[in-house]
Amino acid sequence: MTVLACKYKSMSVLGISAAVIILSASGCSEDPGQKGIYEYVREADKYMEQDNYDQALYVLHEGYETALDSKEMQDQLVRGYVKYSRFLDDKGELDEAIDKMEMAYEMHDKNALAIHELSYLYAKKAVKYSEEGRAEDALALSIKAVDTAMQSKKVRKNISIYFFNRGVEAFQRNDDPTVLLCLNASYALKKSFMTLDMLARYYYRKGDLNRALFFWKKAKETEPDNADIDGKIEKVRKEIELEAGKQTVETEHFDIQFYGNNVVDVGTLSRTLDGIYKEVGDDLRFYPPGITPLVFYREDDFREIFKQAGIVRAFYDGAGIRISVNADYNDPLFPGLAAHEYTHAVLSILTNNECPIWLHEGIAVLEQDKYIPSTLMYVFNEIGRGKELSLEYIDGGFSEKEDEERLALSYEAAYTAVLFILDKWGWDGLRGLLDRIGKGTHYANAIDEEFYVSRGGFEKMWNEYLKSDSLYAK
Question: pLDDT by residue (tens digit) across 83-134?
Protein backbone atom coordinates (compact mmCIF):
# COMPACT_ATOMS: atom_id res chain seq x y z
CA MET A 1 0.00 0.00 0.00
CA THR A 2 1.06 3.58 -0.42
CA VAL A 3 2.59 5.09 2.73
CA LEU A 4 2.05 8.79 3.42
CA ALA A 5 5.07 10.64 4.77
CA CYS A 6 4.96 14.33 5.50
CA LYS A 7 7.65 16.96 5.74
CA TYR A 8 6.66 20.36 7.03
CA LYS A 9 8.42 23.65 6.66
CA SER A 10 7.46 26.40 9.08
CA MET A 11 6.32 29.67 7.53
CA SER A 12 5.91 31.57 10.79
CA VAL A 13 7.95 32.31 13.91
CA LEU A 14 5.40 32.21 16.70
CA GLY A 15 2.66 30.23 14.97
CA ILE A 16 2.13 28.38 11.76
CA SER A 17 -0.03 30.09 9.17
CA ALA A 18 0.95 27.91 6.25
CA ALA A 19 2.86 24.70 5.54
CA VAL A 20 4.28 22.87 2.58
CA ILE A 21 3.25 19.22 2.48
CA ILE A 22 5.36 16.81 0.47
CA LEU A 23 3.92 13.37 -0.16
CA SER A 24 6.32 10.50 -0.57
CA ALA A 25 6.03 6.77 -1.07
CA SER A 26 8.69 6.10 1.53
CA GLY A 27 9.57 7.49 4.96
CA CYS A 28 7.69 7.49 8.26
CA SER A 29 4.65 5.31 8.33
CA GLU A 30 1.35 6.83 9.45
CA ASP A 31 -2.30 5.97 9.48
CA PRO A 32 -3.82 7.77 6.45
CA GLY A 33 -6.60 8.99 8.73
CA GLN A 34 -4.28 10.44 11.34
CA LYS A 35 -3.67 14.20 11.43
CA GLY A 36 -0.22 15.57 10.68
CA ILE A 37 1.50 18.00 13.04
CA TYR A 38 0.60 21.10 11.10
CA GLU A 39 -3.03 20.16 10.84
CA TYR A 40 -3.10 20.45 14.62
CA VAL A 41 -1.17 23.71 14.41
CA ARG A 42 -3.52 25.24 11.83
CA GLU A 43 -6.55 24.19 13.84
CA ALA A 44 -5.03 25.71 17.00
CA ASP A 45 -4.24 28.94 15.13
CA LYS A 46 -7.88 29.32 14.18
CA TYR A 47 -8.91 29.10 17.82
CA MET A 48 -6.23 31.62 18.81
CA GLU A 49 -7.52 34.06 16.19
CA GLN A 50 -10.82 33.88 18.07
CA ASP A 51 -9.02 34.36 21.44
CA ASN A 52 -10.09 30.86 22.39
CA TYR A 53 -6.72 29.88 23.82
CA ASP A 54 -7.93 27.08 26.06
CA GLN A 55 -9.30 25.20 23.06
CA ALA A 56 -6.16 26.01 21.08
CA LEU A 57 -3.96 24.48 23.76
CA TYR A 58 -6.25 21.46 23.94
CA VAL A 59 -5.66 20.88 20.23
CA LEU A 60 -1.89 21.38 20.54
CA HIS A 61 -1.74 18.94 23.44
CA GLU A 62 -3.69 16.45 21.36
CA GLY A 63 -1.12 16.83 18.60
CA TYR A 64 1.71 16.55 21.08
CA GLU A 65 0.35 13.23 22.35
CA THR A 66 0.48 11.82 18.83
CA ALA A 67 4.11 12.93 18.31
CA LEU A 68 5.84 12.81 21.68
CA ASP A 69 9.30 12.57 20.12
CA SER A 70 8.79 15.47 17.74
CA LYS A 71 10.83 18.53 18.72
CA GLU A 72 8.81 20.58 16.25
CA MET A 73 5.57 19.64 18.00
CA GLN A 74 7.14 20.44 21.38
CA ASP A 75 8.17 23.86 20.07
CA GLN A 76 4.69 24.51 18.69
CA LEU A 77 3.16 23.62 22.05
CA VAL A 78 5.50 26.02 23.87
CA ARG A 79 4.70 28.76 21.35
CA GLY A 80 1.03 28.18 22.04
CA TYR A 81 1.61 28.73 25.75
CA VAL A 82 3.67 31.84 25.02
CA LYS A 83 0.86 33.33 22.93
CA TYR A 84 -1.65 32.55 25.66
CA SER A 85 0.54 34.05 28.39
CA ARG A 86 1.08 37.23 26.36
CA PHE A 87 -2.65 37.48 25.77
CA LEU A 88 -3.25 37.21 29.52
CA ASP A 89 -0.47 39.67 30.33
CA ASP A 90 -1.92 42.22 27.92
CA LYS A 91 -5.23 41.88 29.78
CA GLY A 92 -3.49 42.64 33.07
CA GLU A 93 -3.72 39.05 34.28
CA LEU A 94 -0.03 38.66 35.12
CA ASP A 95 -0.45 35.85 37.65
CA GLU A 96 -2.40 33.77 35.17
CA ALA A 97 0.21 34.47 32.50
CA ILE A 98 2.93 33.19 34.82
CA ASP A 99 0.90 30.07 35.59
CA LYS A 100 0.68 29.23 31.90
CA MET A 101 4.40 29.72 31.31
CA GLU A 102 5.30 27.67 34.37
CA MET A 103 3.28 24.82 32.86
CA ALA A 104 5.19 25.13 29.59
CA TYR A 105 8.53 25.38 31.39
CA GLU A 106 7.83 22.30 33.48
CA MET A 107 7.21 20.33 30.30
CA HIS A 108 10.20 21.70 28.37
CA ASP A 109 12.68 23.40 30.71
CA LYS A 110 15.39 23.56 28.03
CA ASN A 111 13.26 25.44 25.53
CA ALA A 112 14.84 28.88 24.99
CA LEU A 113 11.50 30.57 24.33
CA ALA A 114 10.01 29.16 27.54
CA ILE A 115 13.08 30.24 29.51
CA HIS A 116 12.91 33.77 28.10
CA GLU A 117 9.19 34.26 28.55
CA LEU A 118 9.06 32.88 32.09
CA SER A 119 12.09 34.85 33.31
CA TYR A 120 10.61 38.02 31.78
CA LEU A 121 7.27 37.49 33.54
CA TYR A 122 9.00 36.79 36.86
CA ALA A 123 11.03 39.98 36.43
CA LYS A 124 7.97 42.03 35.55
CA LYS A 125 6.08 40.80 38.59
CA ALA A 126 9.12 41.34 40.84
CA VAL A 127 9.27 44.99 39.79
CA LYS A 128 5.53 45.33 40.34
CA TYR A 129 5.78 43.93 43.86
CA SER A 130 8.72 46.19 44.66
CA GLU A 131 6.83 49.26 43.51
CA GLU A 132 3.97 48.18 45.78
CA GLY A 133 6.31 47.92 48.77
CA ARG A 134 6.22 44.11 48.91
CA ALA A 135 9.99 43.74 49.32
CA GLU A 136 10.18 40.05 50.27
CA ASP A 137 7.86 38.94 47.47
CA ALA A 138 9.77 41.13 45.01
CA LEU A 139 13.11 39.64 46.04
CA ALA A 140 11.83 36.07 45.75
CA LEU A 141 10.56 36.68 42.21
CA SER A 142 13.65 38.57 41.07
CA ILE A 143 15.76 35.61 42.19
CA LYS A 144 13.47 33.30 40.23
CA ALA A 145 13.90 35.54 37.19
CA VAL A 146 17.69 35.52 37.52
CA ASP A 147 17.92 31.77 38.12
CA THR A 148 15.67 31.00 35.15
CA ALA A 149 17.46 33.41 32.81
CA MET A 150 20.90 32.04 33.69
CA GLN A 151 20.28 28.98 31.54
CA SER A 152 20.76 30.98 28.35
CA LYS A 153 23.39 33.59 27.52
CA LYS A 154 20.97 35.45 25.25
CA VAL A 155 18.20 35.43 27.85
CA ARG A 156 20.64 36.63 30.52
CA LYS A 157 21.46 39.63 28.37
CA ASN A 158 17.83 40.45 27.58
CA ILE A 159 16.57 40.15 31.15
CA SER A 160 19.57 42.12 32.41
CA ILE A 161 18.59 44.96 30.08
CA TYR A 162 14.97 44.74 31.25
CA PHE A 163 15.99 45.04 34.90
CA PHE A 164 18.39 47.88 34.06
CA ASN A 165 15.69 49.91 32.33
CA ARG A 166 13.30 49.46 35.23
CA GLY A 167 16.11 50.42 37.61
CA VAL A 168 16.74 53.68 35.76
CA GLU A 169 13.03 54.51 35.95
CA ALA A 170 13.05 53.81 39.69
CA PHE A 171 16.19 55.94 40.12
CA GLN A 172 14.47 58.86 38.47
CA ARG A 173 11.52 58.66 40.85
CA ASN A 174 13.70 58.01 43.94
CA ASP A 175 12.28 54.53 44.55
CA ASP A 176 15.32 53.16 46.39
CA PRO A 177 14.13 49.56 47.00
CA THR A 178 13.25 49.11 43.33
CA VAL A 179 16.53 50.68 42.21
CA LEU A 180 18.49 48.17 44.29
CA LEU A 181 16.34 45.23 43.27
CA CYS A 182 16.59 45.97 39.56
CA LEU A 183 20.20 47.08 39.29
CA ASN A 184 21.51 44.21 41.42
CA ALA A 185 19.51 41.68 39.41
CA SER A 186 20.80 43.25 36.20
CA TYR A 187 24.37 43.05 37.48
CA ALA A 188 23.95 39.45 38.62
CA LEU A 189 22.98 38.52 35.07
CA LYS A 190 25.53 40.58 33.15
CA LYS A 191 28.52 42.78 33.93
CA SER A 192 27.76 45.85 31.85
CA PHE A 193 29.10 49.40 31.95
CA MET A 194 25.63 50.92 32.11
CA THR A 195 24.55 48.90 35.13
CA LEU A 196 27.80 49.43 37.02
CA ASP A 197 27.77 53.17 36.36
CA MET A 198 24.15 53.42 37.51
CA LEU A 199 24.91 51.48 40.70
CA ALA A 200 27.79 53.88 41.40
CA ARG A 201 25.56 56.88 40.77
CA TYR A 202 22.95 55.49 43.13
CA TYR A 203 25.42 54.93 45.98
CA TYR A 204 27.05 58.31 45.38
CA ARG A 205 23.68 59.96 45.68
CA LYS A 206 23.05 58.12 48.93
CA GLY A 207 26.41 59.26 50.33
CA ASP A 208 27.93 55.76 50.31
CA LEU A 209 31.24 56.82 48.77
CA ASN A 210 33.08 53.52 49.14
CA ARG A 211 30.47 51.57 47.21
CA ALA A 212 30.30 54.33 44.61
CA LEU A 213 34.06 54.07 44.14
CA PHE A 214 33.91 50.28 43.92
CA PHE A 215 31.28 50.24 41.18
CA TRP A 216 32.91 53.03 39.17
CA LYS A 217 36.15 51.05 39.28
CA LYS A 218 34.24 47.99 38.08
CA ALA A 219 32.71 50.12 35.31
CA LYS A 220 36.18 51.21 34.24
CA GLU A 221 37.15 47.54 33.85
CA THR A 222 34.54 47.27 31.11
CA GLU A 223 35.57 50.54 29.39
CA PRO A 224 39.23 51.24 30.32
CA ASP A 225 39.48 54.31 28.05
CA ASN A 226 36.41 56.06 29.42
CA ALA A 227 37.72 59.46 30.58
CA ASP A 228 34.43 60.36 32.22
CA ILE A 229 34.78 57.45 34.64
CA ASP A 230 38.36 58.48 35.45
CA GLY A 231 37.04 61.86 36.56
CA LYS A 232 34.35 60.29 38.74
CA ILE A 233 36.86 57.95 40.38
CA GLU A 234 39.30 60.77 41.13
CA LYS A 235 36.54 62.92 42.58
CA VAL A 236 35.10 60.28 44.88
CA ARG A 237 38.57 59.27 46.09
CA LYS A 238 39.26 62.83 47.21
CA GLU A 239 35.95 62.90 49.05
CA ILE A 240 36.79 59.63 50.80
CA GLU A 241 40.15 61.05 51.90
CA LEU A 242 38.40 63.98 53.52
CA GLU A 243 35.98 61.60 55.26
CA ALA A 244 38.84 59.42 56.50
CA GLY A 245 40.47 62.35 58.24
CA LYS A 246 37.53 62.57 60.61
CA GLN A 247 37.84 59.00 61.88
CA THR A 248 39.91 57.65 64.82
CA VAL A 249 41.66 54.25 65.03
CA GLU A 250 41.26 52.13 68.17
CA THR A 251 44.18 50.31 69.83
CA GLU A 252 43.83 46.61 70.44
CA HIS A 253 44.46 45.06 73.89
CA PHE A 254 45.53 41.42 73.87
CA ASP A 255 45.85 39.15 76.88
CA ILE A 256 49.10 37.48 75.79
CA GLN A 257 50.19 34.22 77.45
CA PHE A 258 53.43 32.39 76.75
CA TYR A 259 54.23 28.69 77.03
CA GLY A 260 57.92 27.89 76.57
CA ASN A 261 61.26 29.48 77.27
CA ASN A 262 61.57 31.69 74.19
CA VAL A 263 62.79 35.23 74.51
CA VAL A 264 60.11 37.62 73.33
CA ASP A 265 60.53 41.10 71.89
CA VAL A 266 57.36 42.49 73.43
CA GLY A 267 57.61 45.76 71.53
CA THR A 268 57.80 44.05 68.14
CA LEU A 269 55.06 41.61 69.10
CA SER A 270 52.77 44.42 70.25
CA ARG A 271 53.32 46.41 67.06
CA THR A 272 52.58 43.33 64.97
CA LEU A 273 49.36 42.61 66.84
CA ASP A 274 48.25 46.24 66.75
CA GLY A 275 48.79 46.23 62.99
CA ILE A 276 46.71 43.07 62.60
CA TYR A 277 44.00 44.53 64.79
CA LYS A 278 43.79 47.63 62.64
CA GLU A 279 43.87 45.80 59.30
CA VAL A 280 41.16 43.30 60.22
CA GLY A 281 39.09 45.97 61.93
CA ASP A 282 39.36 48.32 58.96
CA ASP A 283 38.34 45.56 56.55
CA LEU A 284 35.37 44.34 58.58
CA ARG A 285 34.55 47.77 60.03
CA PHE A 286 34.40 46.17 63.45
CA TYR A 287 36.75 46.56 66.42
CA PRO A 288 35.87 44.10 69.21
CA PRO A 289 35.60 45.59 72.67
CA GLY A 290 37.56 44.12 75.56
CA ILE A 291 40.59 41.87 75.49
CA THR A 292 41.34 39.01 73.13
CA PRO A 293 43.31 36.18 74.76
CA LEU A 294 46.34 35.11 72.70
CA VAL A 295 48.15 31.97 73.83
CA PHE A 296 51.46 30.71 72.40
CA TYR A 297 52.61 27.09 72.56
CA ARG A 298 55.76 25.29 71.57
CA GLU A 299 55.20 23.04 68.56
CA ASP A 300 55.37 19.77 70.51
CA ASP A 301 53.04 21.02 73.23
CA PHE A 302 50.55 22.31 70.69
CA ARG A 303 50.38 18.94 68.88
CA GLU A 304 50.21 16.98 72.10
CA ILE A 305 47.52 19.04 73.80
CA PHE A 306 45.20 19.78 70.91
CA LYS A 307 45.81 16.79 68.57
CA GLN A 308 45.74 19.05 65.53
CA ALA A 309 46.82 17.94 62.05
CA GLY A 310 50.16 19.16 60.74
CA ILE A 311 48.56 21.68 58.39
CA VAL A 312 46.93 23.46 61.36
CA ARG A 313 49.30 25.94 63.02
CA ALA A 314 46.75 27.91 65.04
CA PHE A 315 43.04 28.03 65.85
CA TYR A 316 40.42 30.06 67.70
CA ASP A 317 38.26 28.09 70.10
CA GLY A 318 36.00 30.82 71.43
CA ALA A 319 38.06 31.33 74.53
CA GLY A 320 41.19 32.58 72.83
CA ILE A 321 43.63 32.31 69.95
CA ARG A 322 46.04 29.41 70.33
CA ILE A 323 49.18 29.47 68.21
CA SER A 324 52.01 27.02 67.69
CA VAL A 325 55.47 28.57 67.23
CA ASN A 326 58.28 26.36 65.94
CA ALA A 327 61.47 28.03 67.14
CA ASP A 328 60.77 31.42 68.66
CA TYR A 329 58.23 34.18 68.67
CA ASN A 330 59.95 35.81 65.72
CA ASP A 331 58.75 32.93 63.53
CA PRO A 332 58.11 34.55 60.10
CA LEU A 333 54.82 32.68 59.88
CA PHE A 334 53.56 34.23 63.10
CA PRO A 335 51.92 37.40 61.67
CA GLY A 336 49.95 35.35 59.15
CA LEU A 337 48.84 32.82 61.74
CA ALA A 338 47.87 35.56 64.17
CA ALA A 339 45.94 37.43 61.48
CA HIS A 340 44.09 34.23 60.49
CA GLU A 341 43.01 33.33 64.00
CA TYR A 342 42.30 36.86 65.16
CA THR A 343 39.95 37.15 62.18
CA HIS A 344 38.10 34.09 63.47
CA ALA A 345 37.73 35.77 66.85
CA VAL A 346 36.35 38.94 65.27
CA LEU A 347 33.94 37.02 63.02
CA SER A 348 32.63 34.98 65.94
CA ILE A 349 31.79 38.16 67.84
CA LEU A 350 30.53 40.01 64.78
CA THR A 351 28.13 37.27 63.67
CA ASN A 352 27.15 35.87 67.07
CA ASN A 353 28.84 32.59 66.12
CA GLU A 354 26.49 32.17 63.14
CA CYS A 355 29.08 32.54 60.36
CA PRO A 356 29.31 29.39 58.17
CA ILE A 357 32.64 27.57 58.13
CA TRP A 358 33.45 28.33 54.48
CA LEU A 359 32.98 32.07 55.02
CA HIS A 360 34.83 31.99 58.37
CA GLU A 361 37.85 30.29 56.84
CA GLY A 362 37.73 32.19 53.57
CA ILE A 363 37.95 35.59 55.28
CA ALA A 364 40.61 34.31 57.69
CA VAL A 365 42.78 33.11 54.79
CA LEU A 366 42.22 36.47 53.09
CA GLU A 367 43.75 38.27 56.10
CA GLN A 368 46.49 35.63 56.41
CA ASP A 369 47.36 36.10 52.74
CA LYS A 370 48.69 39.58 53.49
CA TYR A 371 51.60 37.86 55.25
CA ILE A 372 51.67 34.31 53.82
CA PRO A 373 50.65 34.33 50.13
CA SER A 374 48.36 31.49 49.04
CA THR A 375 49.30 29.42 45.99
CA LEU A 376 45.80 28.08 45.17
CA MET A 377 47.54 24.95 43.89
CA TYR A 378 44.78 22.58 44.98
CA VAL A 379 42.01 24.74 43.53
CA PHE A 380 43.75 25.05 40.18
CA ASN A 381 44.29 21.28 40.10
CA GLU A 382 40.60 20.69 40.84
CA ILE A 383 39.44 23.12 38.16
CA GLY A 384 41.97 21.67 35.72
CA ARG A 385 40.26 18.29 36.09
CA GLY A 386 36.92 19.83 35.16
CA LYS A 387 35.51 19.74 38.69
CA GLU A 388 32.94 22.20 40.00
CA LEU A 389 33.01 23.32 43.61
CA SER A 390 30.11 23.87 45.99
CA LEU A 391 29.88 25.54 49.38
CA GLU A 392 28.62 22.29 50.89
CA TYR A 393 31.68 20.42 49.60
CA ILE A 394 34.00 23.05 51.06
CA ASP A 395 32.37 22.85 54.49
CA GLY A 396 32.70 19.07 54.47
CA GLY A 397 36.42 19.30 53.82
CA PHE A 398 37.09 21.14 57.06
CA SER A 399 35.99 18.10 59.04
CA GLU A 400 38.46 15.86 57.17
CA LYS A 401 41.39 16.56 59.50
CA GLU A 402 43.28 13.43 58.44
CA ASP A 403 42.93 14.15 54.72
CA GLU A 404 45.34 17.05 54.47
CA GLU A 405 44.89 17.51 50.72
CA ARG A 406 41.12 17.76 51.07
CA LEU A 407 41.57 20.14 53.99
CA ALA A 408 44.01 22.30 52.01
CA LEU A 409 41.59 22.38 49.07
CA SER A 410 38.81 23.56 51.38
CA TYR A 411 40.94 26.40 52.73
CA GLU A 412 41.90 27.52 49.23
CA ALA A 413 38.39 27.15 47.82
CA ALA A 414 36.86 29.09 50.72
CA TYR A 415 39.40 31.84 50.06
CA THR A 416 38.42 32.00 46.37
CA ALA A 417 34.73 32.24 47.33
CA VAL A 418 35.57 35.33 49.38
CA LEU A 419 37.74 36.72 46.56
CA PHE A 420 34.76 36.27 44.24
CA ILE A 421 32.47 38.16 46.63
CA LEU A 422 34.97 41.01 46.86
CA ASP A 423 35.42 41.09 43.09
CA LYS A 424 31.69 41.07 42.41
CA TRP A 425 30.27 43.12 45.30
CA GLY A 426 33.22 44.63 47.16
CA TRP A 427 33.89 44.90 50.88
CA ASP A 428 30.54 46.52 51.48
CA GLY A 429 28.84 43.52 49.95
CA LEU A 430 30.82 41.14 52.17
CA ARG A 431 30.10 43.24 55.25
CA GLY A 432 26.42 43.33 54.36
CA LEU A 433 26.39 39.53 54.10
CA LEU A 434 28.03 39.20 57.53
CA ASP A 435 25.59 41.70 59.03
CA ARG A 436 22.60 39.67 57.82
CA ILE A 437 24.13 36.44 59.10
CA GLY A 438 24.81 38.09 62.45
CA LYS A 439 21.14 39.00 62.73
CA GLY A 440 20.17 35.34 62.45
CA THR A 441 19.63 34.97 58.72
CA HIS A 442 20.86 31.65 57.28
CA TYR A 443 23.75 32.29 54.93
CA ALA A 444 21.79 31.01 51.90
CA ASN A 445 19.00 33.50 52.58
CA ALA A 446 21.56 36.20 53.36
CA ILE A 447 23.05 35.64 49.89
CA ASP A 448 19.55 36.02 48.42
CA GLU A 449 18.94 39.30 50.20
CA GLU A 450 22.37 40.92 49.91
CA PHE A 451 23.38 39.83 46.41
CA TYR A 452 19.94 39.32 44.85
CA VAL A 453 20.86 35.82 43.72
CA SER A 454 20.18 32.33 45.08
CA ARG A 455 22.88 30.11 46.53
CA GLY A 456 22.77 28.03 43.36
CA GLY A 457 23.18 31.14 41.24
CA PHE A 458 26.03 32.31 43.50
CA GLU A 459 27.82 28.97 43.09
CA LYS A 460 27.39 29.08 39.32
CA MET A 461 28.93 32.55 39.10
CA TRP A 462 31.69 31.59 41.55
CA ASN A 463 32.67 28.58 39.41
CA GLU A 464 32.71 30.83 36.35
CA TYR A 465 35.03 33.15 38.28
CA LEU A 466 37.33 30.22 39.12
CA LYS A 467 37.87 29.67 35.40
CA SER A 468 38.37 33.36 34.59
CA ASP A 469 41.51 35.43 34.22
CA SER A 470 40.47 37.47 37.27
CA LEU A 471 41.47 34.72 39.69
CA TYR A 472 44.80 34.02 37.99
CA ALA A 473 45.68 37.69 38.38
CA LYS A 474 45.36 37.52 42.18
Answer: 988 999 999 999 999 999 999 998 888 899 999 999 999 999 999 999 999 9
147-152's contacts with Cβ under 8 Å and 24+ in sequence apart are 147/453, 147/454, 147/456, 147/457, 148/105, 148/115, 148/118, 148/119, 148/122, 149/115, 149/116, 149/119, 149/123, 149/189, 150/189, 150/457, 150/460, 151/109, 151/110, 151/115, 152/112, 152/115, 152/116
Tell me the pLDDT tens digit for each residue of 201-247: 999 888 888 999 999 999 999 999 998 999 889 888 877 876 654 43
Q: How far is CA 153 from CA 45, 260, 471, in A?
A: 31, 60, 22
Domain end residue (candidates: 324, 347, 370): 347
Average pLDDT, the chain: 83
Kindly state the DSSP code that residue 92 receives in the 8-state scheme: T
Alpha helices, H only, 132-208: 135-149, 153-172, 176-189, 193-205
How crowded is residue 66: how many other Cβ atoms within 10 Å of its Cβ?
15
What domain range is 320 assigned to? 248-347
Distances (CA, A) of 16 to 340, 355, 441, 474: 65, 56, 51, 54
- Sheet harboring 314-316: ordered strands across? 254-258, 292-298, 321-325, 314-316
Q: What is the per-residue pLDDT for 19?
A: 35
185-210 average pLDDT score: 93
What does the angle CA 265 – CA 266 – CA 271 come to, to the nearest 5 degrees? 105
Same structural domain, 379 and 456: yes
Query: How many other CB atoms are there within 10 angstroms of residue 430's CB atom?
Result: 21
Q: Report yes or no on 438 lying in a domain.
A: yes
Q: φ and ψ at 295, to 5 degrees?
A: -115, 130
Q: From CA 55, how far away is CA 358, in angstroms rounded?
A: 53
DSSP assignment of 14-57: SS-S------BSSSS---TTSPPHHHHHHHHHHHHHTT-HHHHH
* 378 plus 464 within the same structural domain: yes
Q: Count the neighbouring beta carbons within 10 Å of the beta carbon of residue 332.
A: 9
Q: Are residues 291 and 378 in the same domain?
A: no
Give residue 258's pLDDT.
72
Q: What is the pTM of this model?
A: 0.69
Q: What is the pLDDT of residues 397-434, one digit of tens each?
A: 988 777 889 999 999 999 999 999 999 999 999 999 99
**Orientation of helix 266-284 relative to helix 404-438, angle to 10°:** 60
